[in-house]
Amino acid sequence: MNRLLKMSTRLLLGLALFPALVMAQLPDPGLTIDPARTALVITDPQNDFLSPEGVTWGLVGASVEANGTVANIEALMKTAKANGIEVVISPHYYYPTDHGWQFGGAVETMMHAINMFDRQGALTTQGFEGSGADWLEVYKPLINDGKTVVTSPHKVYGPESNDLALQLRKRGIDKVILGGMSANLCVESHMRELLEQGFEVAVVIDATAAAQTPDIDGYAAAVTNFRFLASASWTTEQAKAAMTAAGGH
């Protein structure tokens, strides 16, 4: 009887420790940068997410400031450009016709209600300058340099509805360094779809941020999933060092 009890106790302890053992043994594949085959992809570097005047600042502002997200995205773009690595922006826009949608998820419904990323139309930039849909001012010289690829807009969270994968494939790119806004929504959705499309992905965990409320932490949820799914979870400094080593600048 004692022997049976001891065996049962060992089994229960083993089951209790199993998640910790799995996490401790979770591999870290890493991502080796080849500048000709690598792109830096930034999602939603726009005022409504990253400016204190943006419509979501009350939800994401603390996370943006804690991570140094604005400066980190800028540093990534500058480092990528200095080392011959393509920079690709995947923006989020809503046009008046998009407000005719008849259903949506929680955050999607909120975005429509607060006119997040709204533009006056697909074929006009009237009212765009300085709007919530516009680039954060500090990024404009980097994005508007005639070299940065700006894809068609994604409409919910992931790139399934835009031409990001096409733009990457046409350039012979199969490795992606990913950052932008927001961590548990567009960044995570882009990561998941790029992985399904056969790309290697490294996520820069402090070049993003997410909504945090007293009972929900979107950033913590995303960082957990980045570790489970991506080839690498880098800090900005680690990403800069990897790009510099690969490009020699």
Layout: helices, strands, pairs:
Layout: H1 2-24, E1 38-43, H2 47-50, H3 57-67, H4 69-82, E2 86-90, H5 106-113, H6 140-143, E3 149-150, H7 164-170, E4 175-180, H8 183-196, E5 200-204, E6 212-213, E7 216-217, H9 218-229, E8 232-234, H10 236-247
Parallel strand pairs: 1-2, 1-4, 2-3, 4-5, 5-8
Antiparallel strand pairs: 6-7
Helix pairs in contact: 4-10, 8-9
Features:
single chain, 249 residues, alpha/beta, two-stranded antiparallel sheet, globular
Would you kindly provide a written description of the structure presented here, covering whatever features stand out?
The chain is of the alpha/beta class. It has one domain: Rossmann fold (3-Layer(aba) Sandwich), CATH 3.40.50. 44% of the residues lie in helices and 12% in strands. The protein is built from 10 helices and 8 strands. It has helices at 2-24, 47-50, 57-67, 69-82, 106-113, 140-143, 164-170, 183-196, 218-229, 236-247, and strands spanning 38-43, 86-90, 149-150, 175-180, 200-204, 212-213, 216-217, 232-234. The strands form 2 sheets. The protein has a 6-stranded parallel beta sheet, sandwiched between helices. A two-stranded antiparallel sheet has the order 6-7. The N and C termini lie far apart (69 Å).
The low-confidence runs, each spanning 5 or more residues with pLDDT under 50, are: none
Order of strands, main sheet, comes to 3-2-1-4-5-8
Mean pLDDT: 93
Q: Alpha-carbon distance between the termini? A: 69 Å
Percent range for helical residues?
Answer: 40-55%
**In terms of structural class, how would the helical and strand content be classed?**
alpha/beta
CATH superfamily: Isochorismatase-like
Q: State Rg.
A: 20 Å
Got a strand count?
8
CATH topology tier name: Rossmann fold
> What string, H for helix and E for strand, traces the elements in order?
HEHHHEHHEHEHEEEHEH
User: Per CATH, which architecture?
Assistant: 3-Layer(aba) Sandwich
Number of DSSP helical runs: 10
Number of domains: 1
Shape, principal axes of CA atoms? globular
Question: What's the level 1 CATH class?
Answer: Alpha Beta
